[in-house]
Amino acid sequence: MTTRLHGGGCPPAQAPARPSSVRALQKYGRDGRPGCACGATAAPQESRALSDIQVGEGVARVAVLGASGYTGAEVVRLGALHPNLKIAALTADRQAGKAFSDVFPHLVTATDVPELAKIDDVDFHNIDAAFCCLPHATTQKIIASLPPSIRVVDLSADFRLRDTATYKEWYGGDHQAPELQKEAVYGLTEIFRSAIQSARLVANPGCYPTSICLPLFPLLQQQLVQKDGIIIDAKSGVTGAGRSPAESKLFCEVADGMHAYGVSSHRHMPEIEQCLSDAAGFPVRVSFTPHLVPMSRGMMSTIYVQMSEGVTANTLRSALQHFYDAEPFVKVLPAGTFPQTRHVRGSNLNLIGVSEDRLSGRAIILSVIDNLVKGASGQAIQNMNLVLGVDETTGLMQQPLFP
Amino acid sequence: MTTRLHGGGCPPAQAPARPSSVRALQKYGRDGRPGCACGATAAPQESRALSDIQVGEGVARVAVLGASGYTGAEVVRLGALHPNLKIAALTADRQAGKAFSDVFPHLVTATDVPELAKIDDVDFHNIDAAFCCLPHATTQKIIASLPPSIRVVDLSADFRLRDTATYKEWYGGDHQAPELQKEAVYGLTEIFRSAIQSARLVANPGCYPTSICLPLFPLLQQQLVQKDGIIIDAKSGVTGAGRSPAESKLFCEVADGMHAYGVSSHRHMPEIEQCLSDAAGFPVRVSFTPHLVPMSRGMMSTIYVQMSEGVTANTLRSALQHFYDAEPFVKVLPAGTFPQTRHVRGSNLNLIGVSEDRLSGRAIILSVIDNLVKGASGQAIQNMNLVLGVDETTGLMQQPLFP
Amino acid sequence: MTTRLHGGGCPPAQAPARPSSVRALQKYGRDGRPGCACGATAAPQESRALSDIQVGEGVARVAVLGASGYTGAEVVRLGALHPNLKIAALTADRQAGKAFSDVFPHLVTATDVPELAKIDDVDFHNIDAAFCCLPHATTQKIIASLPPSIRVVDLSADFRLRDTATYKEWYGGDHQAPELQKEAVYGLTEIFRSAIQSARLVANPGCYPTSICLPLFPLLQQQLVQKDGIIIDAKSGVTGAGRSPAESKLFCEVADGMHAYGVSSHRHMPEIEQCLSDAAGFPVRVSFTPHLVPMSRGMMSTIYVQMSEGVTANTLRSALQHFYDAEPFVKVLPAGTFPQTRHVRGSNLNLIGVSEDRLSGRAIILSVIDNLVKGASGQAIQNMNLVLGVDETTGLMQQPLFP
Amino acid sequence: MTTRLHGGGCPPAQAPARPSSVRALQKYGRDGRPGCACGATAAPQESRALSDIQVGEGVARVAVLGASGYTGAEVVRLGALHPNLKIAALTADRQAGKAFSDVFPHLVTATDVPELAKIDDVDFHNIDAAFCCLPHATTQKIIASLPPSIRVVDLSADFRLRDTATYKEWYGGDHQAPELQKEAVYGLTEIFRSAIQSARLVANPGCYPTSICLPLFPLLQQQLVQKDGIIIDAKSGVTGAGRSPAESKLFCEVADGMHAYGVSSHRHMPEIEQCLSDAAGFPVRVSFTPHLVPMSRGMMSTIYVQMSEGVTANTLRSALQHFYDAEPFVKVLPAGTFPQTRHVRGSNLNLIGVSEDRLSGRAIILSVIDNLVKGASGQAIQNMNLVLGVDETTGLMQQPLFP
Fold it and tell me: Burial level of A402, CB count in 10 A (0-12/13-18/19+)?
């Protein structure tokens, strides 16, 4: 276990702390949570290193559960160049029996993946790890039914909220696997790296929370911005809404126009507040308004914050640059430069810009990601890399596709 | 003259006040400016009624100056169905001699418009009124040189800012026609209707200010929202940037992505603040961040406000509904309904939605317009209608084009 | 009258010739067919004039059946400015009870239309005419059940094919109203104008056939192009596929890409061939390949033809210019100028360009329409105008919306 | 060697056959031409292997000339994952001194590339090979001035046409490097592979010719389709027009619409005809009409052909499947399946579908590529790989990005 590449163990005592950028987290531990105790819990997972999982070639056999949606396809797209992942099962109950390239013709050359199967027909004894891309609610039961030896990165919302009462409030039903929930590690990679390394179940963050918490977490933690009055105006591409047919997602209903949705009621709200509260050490409540923009991929969060006494936008920028200095996927832009969603398209990057506001004492933070990559499948692979003990960037170094 | 349809004269004494919605403006007069004195100044313009301008058919001969850009074309598009406007001159110095449909092939059936001419070649003695669609700075001199009998609606920024020092600060040069500036009336139609009726020079508002001030003006005026802490996250379609070629406006640089621009430095900022300060009766300073979205037309302003003590989102919505009740072009949506830019495409409508915010005491206001219509040429025609004394809605009742 | 093509004969001798614009048709009669005869047969329909339909105001009470789709909404959009149409019923069985603007928020100001109703709940005795925007197959029965006094413009495919065997072959079921079929007039307005004037049931053409037959009909009829070897490469915007949810129409499946569909098997094929065969006087068989392009509206047909001996592209262009010279909605562009779909957006225009091909003896014809307007609801209103005896251009003179 | 077509003869006797995949070419030799011969001529270039170019690490130092356009950026994007290419110089005269990521912010993590330089400031003695992404005409002189030891893949049109008279006719000026022209090898990789391997100067094909000639070359060569009556209706994304600002490429002029351009006069015409004539062994003249479609990347050619006696669409499909069976980048789809441009986005793939036409004896071939990858920079890298003697697929195995 000590040989694992990134992050190593997370016990505060020895924290090897790579990348160095995360030293700022010392107060709260490697995973950014007060009283973090991931070291202890790491023990049962000590066999997680890739060499332990699969004899021979350093290749983990992974299943993609719910592979007929965009996030499933994106795992396969990125996985195709990943030397340590072998896609051994693809499930999609209603499309079982089809070739994967019948459902996703752009992956016509991914001929080494299995055809789609019903989840009940998968022999999970041949599976080392799974990406779970299923709808929320169903996810809980399925993950609970998997052999415990399987590492899971879950892209649904089912295990993101620690408080199952909050889960019920926002998702409208009792949680079906509360015990498993306790075990889940929130997979915002750059913040909770060491806990992820030792996790059996990673709750991959939502796209909005990723774009918002990456810039805000360190700033709140370092008390550079105030916990009150955070206003987040977020904009998303349409892949964020998934592939199931609905009138509201038709080309003609989306093209050449935009609108807000889920005003004051979007389900990512409690997830954002949970993560930011962890950062601040106090409950944080935010204003969060998502908008749908006529683009397939891309997410932009424009974040308006009140700075702490004596802090300027330059302070914020410097703090973020320092915090993320060694990170391969988070880049803080120089003053006067602002990010565009199209410049991260297809990549695992998060670009962040910071500007003084015209209102005294306030700053504007602009954060962009590709919602399907860093906001979903890319971060899932990044987390899986940590879980498997391979280089965190493996399979993720493709440049953005622009134009 | 007293028989003119909309607005009538604005002397407080007799204020015929139609639509009734604008009664709320009593404190500041019909044009919403403290100490408004438009009644007196109306006198010199008493000959403005259309019947006075042109003998015979009730048709004003209008020039469109700077007709090769999008706003110029939009005046011609809307004007084509306007029974009281005859387009008598179209200028575009670099395209002089061309048929208008060579420059705008979509207007191929507008065969009754003249060909493009140099501005110096226009005989302005045959012109009753002009839409000025020229770039800022050049506009000042040209308008100053026109015969004073010509009514002008100016779509540039040149006469929007009352304070020429502010103009210089944001536009980088001394104002060339400060005397004319004093005469200009700010053309936010629903707010300054009566002053516009008696104006010789209307400074047509910018697109962002229109989308922002229509909802905020009455709320500030009625002290329902606080003047501090107004945060405006605005999004625009690409026509807002005009038709001149630039790399940043190329299809491939704009499609499938979005970004903020002019962060804390957009030139519409002082115009917004001037208008909102008029409403509040005190200087108002706002946070304003515009974004460019991959759509041709459409503008959305998401406005975050702190409400006054005891006020709720329902209060705001009711106040706006009351204020705009009789207005043909401003519609305040019921609770739980939010506007989309595509639903006003091609129309002169402004749709407004109001929502409680998750942050206590705050509300979110969503306002959409078509930036080329209510944000430019449509409002210009609306203002021209007022100036000419014809029904304010003439030529503007086409339904939005969706999809 | 039994000889009406898709309705209406039209004797050269008496050609009632309205509008006067169509004098170019003298050689072939009002229907554009050699020696056909319809004037006499107009007698039974002489009560069609609008003043006969509705006492008093010259306004026909119309129903829009199937009003929750794009073509239904487009009838309402265009009808809103139509002085002779009063929308008296809107049906949509699954949305019955909703306000129309709940289903189409862009028509929020169309407050004078009734709410959506079930078709069985409509009292058709108060209806003078109907636009039928229902899916094919169901349409047949519903139209057959309407009171015979109601004039109908049917936008479905149900009555376009004269030969019910052909209908069965392409649409997969027996025709349910074969007698009614015999009465139907094919509504390609500029070609079959006089027959439409006297029709009770107009089969409004498909979008592809409209864009193809308007240029090809006169050329085949005048034997300027050969009936063999016609190759049509057509491209459509996505509204052509309707509003019902389907994965293939989702924004993310359509944006930033294109593809052919229905290759050699599209259902508009027999309609195109029927119309062109009528023109040629011999069976015509064409190659027709439609493509889906990421735009909401717009249709472009690129038509490759072999010219007759001695004919040049200039001959073709001149013939079309002569034929359509007085038409308000069909414009033939000068040599070297080619049409763009965006230049007819929202309008009832058909723009046509003609070019010599690099292959000897061949020419290329480019034809664009807005598929929802001239390709559907606009032509439907144009036909309804003829049926009601009002000016053919009523309600249709809005300029295209560009950009 | 003087017999090389666009370079390279290729003797059937010794066909070196790399990659083994191309065994299907045995009948016509490695170049795909009957009886041509190139193996022998490989001798002078035997030093082309990468190990000869650069001592030590198997890495070639490459320059990208004209790196501020889309094709230059695309070479850098793809090259970033290429283990055998080190980008040692990037030129862009007007942007010299800027960081590459200032000009292309999406490549912000490509920190190991040099800043932009003037071409005159590059020390070409440290350069092994060059991608030339300059405008045509200037290209000729610059390539002629490079040290002869430098291998060049030229993405301009300057060396594609063997006949300099044809060049002059279509490009309007005398060719400035006619001797160099004789040496150039036409870089349609799958067809002229062996000649490319031994080339010093590769004329990378145009995007339209690539999408057209890959399917048509083997079919004409095998005499399965007739050389007369080939009609090509092609559609391109907007990147094909480059990055220089022009009104016709603005977002608002391109979005939500389409049109044909360069009708019967596009400069890719002679290139297509040259290549197809080589295939047929006789002069071939085609009808070719390009269209501009509102998408950033993607190209689709819909090709209408007359088949030879007794040939069916199935014959064509089988022949293409056989011919391209072992090719990594050309995939021929099964019957009834047709390609979409979005399914090759960002990849070097060419997908081909074949359908029977409704016209007897005719077939329809649908061919899609990403115009910036297989249509430009991807094929350039593929050719460079051949020139350098490394695996042809190196750096090109990323999956397409969809949606």
Answer: buried
